[in-house]
Specification:
heterotrimer, A alpha+beta, B alpha+beta, C alpha+beta, A: Uridine Diphospho-n-acetylenolpyruvylglucosamine Reductase, domain 2, Uridine Diphospho-n-acetylenolpyruvylglucosamine Reductase, domain 3, Enolase-like, domain 1, five-stranded antiparallel beta sheet, four-stranded mixed beta sheet, 11 helices, B: five-stranded mixed beta sheet, 6 helices, globular
């Protein structure tokens, strides 16, 4: 039985109920932490007439770390995600993304689902992190469940079709090193103007077998940096070398001009972010 | 049906729209004006309250999503007639306060931090304050007060354990 | 005998309530039956109003009053009355109010404001000073000649709202000398938003035919006067009170929302609350203005500055506001610090179709000091002299002549530079091994002043021995009203500071005051309070002399008692004297006042200046160490040191707090806080997401030393300490970044993209083609006439 607080906010307890509500009411908007949606008036947009809160749905609440996969519920906050993946070696980059975005109070409420579903927010941290992880987004419809690879998910408009609900993401576990580097204008506290998130498959001896590199905030939509991935595969995992490779390939990006930074700057700092992401992925213990 | 939320240990009925920001309800309906509306977009922290002990920006929190969580505002942290909590006391002793607008949020954010970790490093304190803007003080005395309060907390705990 | 109260770290009496969230700011205020108001603002920068129709808005649910320009006929200003409350016929900036609505709820008020019909016919907009000064540019105020001049003396014309000039000596001859090096530099500074956490807010009522306004302001009397003028009512019919103010920094140094709320209160018969949203604060704050600066100097081989010319363009936005007054400060900041031979300065406030600018802590001093100190370092590079050595040789000292011919008293900056050397000892001179970043350090000097001007105070000696201090001073956060003032009264009357009750500002109870700002609270209100205490003390001692059967001259006030000099056990409490006085002479009170003394300048030297010489100059030396990341352009402050001239420190701990806070704001100005204006004339940073204020991780603990002993006419030798800490910060950071990168830093803020652009050569140099290279190209009047009016004064050699 869903708690209907009045005609504006519905708080279903189960996924089933949520999907029924979404199917019956095309004007209802899912809300998780609310940190994006509640700012609609500041963007000159109206608040949605009716909202469906996903916070009480158990199926969307947890992080399951299993042998072969990790499943993250859409309702998991950045802070909860960072705590859950702390110490999981292959997910280090995802943890770094989750624990540095925005500010601490926002991280406690802003969710994985909100970060992924918000097409108008190019500076999301989890999006490039999950792109680099080659994650699949799970979208539930009343009658079926879709598994959408991140790249395809980001191309969809809207990312989550009416009547469906983003319930979580699934990441296949690999032997990999991952790292996330974000550049803010202050030390922290603002949205990153450029993000590089990467996952590296490594051979004994430090040769890269596979590289997946994602770039966020530079263009309107985060994307994989396939040219750099190809350049890195087969080379030694070395931050400086990778930065050099990145430097010769930045021309492929068309940085977006924004109030917070000009487009040229976002692309110009990419090699540095590649270096930092490598360093974050391969911390020198010695 | 009206909503009910728990504010400073008391069940309070809330009239009206559940999408109303918690901050508006606290200030306009309950006359708890310690939390301030300053930026309205989650970047300044003047509206910080604790939800089950965790700092939250009440300007972006629809009151309908508060649910069962306990809301603690600055007025409830050290209720009338009770002593200041250690971080408040340390701010008083350090002459940290200037215009005062950020302090309700600062105090709550730092009390939550000290609840979680009774001896945070200076870096951890600064990191915890990333969402709390102070326009007057340049932060140093706030950070110093938090360090002092953490030592006070530790000292208190040692006192008790003895 | 208790410890001396002057020089002690008296705690703040308002701190506990602020920590408990109990303090009620104007934005927290509420009244029974209170309405909420909203403004309708124009969304174009320049337009003719074709139609403004509020009929539909009046019929909206909950609406109780709608007012427009028809209800507020007056114009206001500080030097020139050019600013109507609502746009009349013409829109001059994006965000200009055209109507105000009061309704039962805020949502209803906003909905009705949105429902007002506003049809605009766009006009060509001048969004930059270059556009406004271009030949054939549209005049933003075609009727400028008809405006009432509230202050005489400035030249005005076209889009130049005000022009002030300084002419002392023959710069032409000096520049023509063949034994000098000529150094020319150009600088551009951006706007800075004060962004106090409490937005501008007020509650107005209309009672017994008078307007009563509770407001978040630094200037209760100015609000009273401006509101009355705009509404066309008697000044006496406006009463302004100010509770604790949640930060001002100059934003609240002018009237703001009060007349709107007052009009709506009268129209509705109900209390009306009006609070700006953050977005409105971002779009319409009276920012520190952006400025374009050109300086050129002729310097001898051994570093003597034989001539200096400079032009400073200050963007006042659509209306003059504070800027005509602030043109004055170029002479005392950019024209300061160093002994100069001949000097010619032009300082112009220029109208543009952008939001009006205003006062922000140290005002144009902050960018003039940036420009002057960077220029000074460029001089040092050109003549091959160490920058600290150059400063040591050239800073003003006892008997030096300032730009306007003022003679400075005392050697202050020189010894302060020495003090800085001591403070620096032990600081790391570089980065740790392995750090790839670039290290830079710079030492800069600065000159600011106390904005003296009129203040009044009354003290009442109560029969319980307590003292009530009544002034129009406002506690804006600096603590002056909570610490320095009670300390001064306590010292004067020999009562403990806890016994001094400080009355919150109310124009019905306190005499005129020019406002809290310009570092003047401790000095001007302090001096007025001292005078009031002297008056009360005289009366108190007369009554006590009767009681103690001795002469008033033999009496002293201390520890809350009146005692006889040399007879320690014969004393009576002030309470007893006050109670007795009530029966025999009536209650004891004292009144006092203060204003500037009007220090002399060289006659005819300065034109259009509202302050020709500084009554209380203040000096400061800043130094900072930076690390610049050449890959991203990020500047990290490694260390920051300050030696500040305070005259005499009334409350040293409070001053240190002001220095730390002022430096942090300065770091925001130097590095993070950027205001840019879009093609629609609208400020692009609409909130604190994009307007980046420094956070706890962006500042460092400032090492500060208070320099005491410089001459001051302030009470007990005090100087204002709250404003100057921001003065040198952009200068120190910019010079340090220039030293780290080896690049000519000409523009602030030094955001990462700007610094990276500088390092890589991708940052375009500022284009100042609209500022002529010669001083002559930048004046409204005939330069030869100006020269003819200036004093004949041979200053080929700096004095």
């Amino acid at each position: 039985m869903s708690t209907v607080t009045n005609e504006r906010l519905f708080i279903p307890q189960t996924l089933r109920e949520a999907l029924d509500l979404l199917a019956e009411d095309s004007a209802i908007t899912p809300i998780a932490g609310g940190t994006w949606l509640m700012r609609a008036p500041l963007r000159g947009e109206p608040l949605p007439g009716r909202c469906l809160a996903i916070g009480a749905i158990d199926e969307l609440a947890g992080v399951q770390i299993e042998e072969a996969t990790v499943t993250i519920g859409a309702g998991v906050s950045h802070a909860a995600l960072a705590r859950a993946v702390d110490g999981v070696p292959d997910l280090r980059g995802l943890g770094q993304a989750a624990m540095k975005s925005a500010n601490p109070a926002i991280r406690e409420v802003a969710t994985v689902g909100g970060n992924l579903a918000t097409g108008g927010f190019p500076a999301a941290d989890l999006v490039p992190a999950l792109l680099a992880m080659d994650a699949e987004v799970i979208v539930a419809h009343r009658d079926r469940e879709e598994r959408v690879p991140m790249t395809r998910f980001l191309e969809r408009e809207p990312r989550v079709p009416p009547g469906s609900l983003l319930t979580g993401v699934r990441v296949a576990r690999r032997r990999q090193s991952s790292g996330h580097a974000r550049l803010t204008m202050r030390t922290a506290g603002d949205y990153a103007v450029a993000i590089v998130s990467l996952c590296l498959g490594l051979q004994e001896g430090g040769t890269i077998t596979e590289a997946r590199v994602a770039v966020g905030s530079v263009e309107p939509t985060p994307r994989r940096w396939t040219e750099l991935e190809q350049a890195l595969a087969g080379s030694r995992a070395d931050a400086a070398t990778a930065a050099q490779a990145a430097d010769s390939l930045v021309a492929g990006f068309n940085g977006r001009d924004g109030v917070e930074a000009p487009g040229w700057y976002r692309t110009r700092v990419l090699p540095t972010l590649v270096r930092r992401a490598f360093e974050a992925a391969l911390p020198r213990t010695a | 049906m009206p909503l009910e939320i728990n504010v400073n240990g008391e069940a309070r009925a809330v009239q009206g729209d559940p999408m109303t920001p918690l901050l508006t309800v606290l200030r306009e309906e309950m006359h708890l004006t310690g939390a301030k509306l300053s930026c309205g977009e989650g970047f300044c922290g003047a509206c910080t309250v604790l939800l089950d002990g965790t700092p939250a920006m009440s300007c972006l929190m629809p009151v309908g999503l508060v649910g069962e969580r306990a809301v603690l505002t600055i007025e409830g942290l050290a209720p009338a007639g009770s002593e200041l909590v250690p971080v408040q006391k340390a701010m008083l002793d350090n002459d940290a306060v200037q215009c005062g607008m950020c302090f309700p949020g600062m105090v709550l954010t730092l009390s939550a931090l000290l609840q979680q970790n009774d001896s945070p490093s200076e870096d951890m304190i600064r990191e915890a304050l990333v969402g709390n803007i102070c326009r007057c003080t340049g932060y140093e005395r706030i950070v110093a007060a938090a360090l002092e309060a953490s030592r006070a907390t530790v000292a208190d705990a040692q006192e008790v354990s003895r | 005998m208790t410890a001396p109260v002057i020089g002690s770290d008296l705690p703040r009496r308002d701190a506990e309530d602020k920590l408990r969230g109990r303090t009620r700011y104007a934005m927290d205020s509420g009244r029974p039956g209170m309405l909420h108001a909203a403004l309708r603002r124009a969304d174009q920068p320049a337009a003719r109003i074709r139609r403004l129709d509020v009929t539909a808005a009046r019929r909206m649910p909950g609406v109780r009053a709608v007012v427009t320009a028809a209800d507020a006929p007056g114009r206001y200003g500080i030097a020139v009355a050019d600013h109507p409350l609502f746009a009349i016929d013409t829109i001059r900036y994006n965000g200009e109010p055209v109507a105000a609505v009061a309704a039962e709820t805020l949502e209803q008020a906003r909905a009705a404001a949105d429902a007002i019909l506003l049809e605009l016919e766009p006009l060509p907009a001048n969004l930059t000073m270059a556009e406004s000064l271009a030949s054939g540019a549209r005049e933003i105020h075609p009727d400028w000649r008809d405006y009432q001049e509230l202050v005489a003396g400035g030249s005005r014309g076209g889009n130049v709202a005000w022009e002030a000039t300084v002419i002392r000596g023959d710069t032409d001859a000096a520049f023509a000398r063949d034994d000098v090096t000529v150094v020319e530099s150009e600088f551009v500074a951006g706007r800075q938003n004060q962004a106090p956490l409490e937005p501008r807010a007020c509650v107005a009522t209309y009672e017994d035919g008078r307007f009563v306004i509770e407001t978040s302001t630094q200037v209760p009397w100015a609000v009273r006067n401006a509101t009355a003028n705009l509404l066309g009512v008697n000044v006496a019919d406006v009463r302004v009170t100010a509770p604790a103010v949640g930060g001002g920094f100059g934003l609240k140094f002018e009237m703001a929302l009060e007349p709107f709320a007052a009009l709506l209160a009268r129209a509705s018969g109900r209390p009306v609350k009006l609070v700006n949203r953050r977005e409105e604060e971002m779009l319409t704050a009276l920012c520190r203005e952006n400025a374009d600066i050109r300086i050129r100097s002729a310097v001898s081989r051994d570093g003597e500055i034989v001539a200096r010319e400079a032009t400073v363009l200050m963007d006042c936005g659509a209306y003059g506001g504070e800027q005509p007054f602030l043109t004055t400060m170029t002479a005392h900041t950019l024209g300061a610090n160093y002994r100069l031979g001949a000097v010619r300065l032009v300082s112009r406030a220029v109208y543009t179709n952008t939001a009006p600018t205003g006062a922000f802590r140290a005002c144009n001093g902050a960018y003039n000091t940036f420009a002057l100190e960077r220029h000074t370092d460029e001089i040092c590079a050109a003549i091959g002299m160490d920058p600290v050595e150059f400063r040591r040789r050239n800073v003003v000292g006892d008997g030096s002549m300032g730009a306007t011919g003022q003679i400075f008293e005392g050697d202050v900056l020189g010894p302060m530079l020495e003090r800085m050397e001591t403070l620096r000892a032990g600081a790391a001179g570089g980065l740790p091994a392995g750090d790839r970043r670039l290290f830079g350090r710079a030492t800069v000097v600065g000159t600011w002043f106390v904005f003296v001007g009129p203040s009044a105070a009354t003290v009442n000696i109560n029969p319980d021995g307590s003292v009530t201090l009544v002034t129009a001073g406002v506690e804006i956060g600096s603590g002056s009203m909570m610490q320095a003032l009670p300390q001064i009264v306590s010292h004067s009357l020999g009562v403990p500071p806890e016994s001094v009750v400080v009355r919150a500002a109310d124009t019905d109870s306190a005499g005129f005051d020019i406002g809290v700002g310009g570092g003047r609270t401790t000095v001007s209100l302090g001096a007025a309070s001292t005078a009031a205490c002297d008056d009360a003390r005289r009366k108190l001692l007369e009554v006590a002399a009767d009681l103690l059967e001795t002469a008033p001259e033999d009496l002293v006030l201390e520890d809350g008692h009146v005692g006889i000099v040399g007879v320690p056990d014969q004393r009576i409490s002030i309470a007893q004297v006050a109670a007795h006085a009530q029966l025999v002479t009536g209650p004891i009170s004292g009144s006092g006042s203060f204003t500037g003394r009007g220090t002399g300048s060289l006659p005819g030297c300065a034109a259009g200046h509202m302050i020709e010489a500084l009554d209380i100059p203040i000096f400061t030396v800043h130094e900072c160490d930076v690390a610049v990341d050449a890959d991203t352009g990020h500047v990290q402050i490694l260390a920051y040191r300050v030696v500040q001239d305070v005259g005499r420190a009334i409350n040293p701990r409070a001053i240190h707090g002001q220095i730390q806070g002022g430096v942090a704001q300065g770091l925001g100005y130097a590095l993070h806080e950027e205001v840019t204006i879009g093609a629609d004339g609208c400020i692009r940073q609409r909130g604190l997401e994009t307007y980046r204020l420094p956070l706890a991780q962006d500042v460092v603990p400032v090492q500060a030393e208070l320099f005491e002993g410089a001459p001051s006419i302030g009470p007990l030798g005090a100087k204002g300490a709250g404003e100057i800490p921001i003065l040198n910060v952009a200068a120190a950071v910019a010079c340090a970044v220039a030293n780290a990168t080896g690049k000519r830093v000409r523009q602030i803020p030094l955001t990462p993209p700007r610094v990276l652009g500088l390092i890589t050569g991708m940052e375009p140099q500022p284009n100042l083609s609209h500022v002529g290279s010669s001083w002559r190209d930048n004046v409204l009047d005939d330069p030869d006439e100006l020269l003819a009016r200036s004093p004949v004064h041979d200053t080929a050699t700096p004095s």
